[in-house]
Amino acid sequence: MRRLSKIKSEAKISGVCAGLARYFGLDVTIIRVLWVLAVFFAVGSPVLVYIIMAIVMPEDDPDAVPYEDVKDEYDDSERY
Known about the structure:
Blueprint: H1 16-24, H2 28-41, H3 46-56
């Protein structure tokens, strides 16, 4: 299960676009270009949305183990 979070190691400003790119499986450049186009064409209020996402989104934990890799030691569904 993917988790939406900021990625500080790939950040230009706060890591929001890098986090969105990882979450949706896209190149970060595509997300950044779309965001800049949204700012210039004023679709909604992208600057305000970016600021809110930068405050609300949790930071990525590079040492965390992905959820798919965690095996439940009490799961015996494979036995039957």
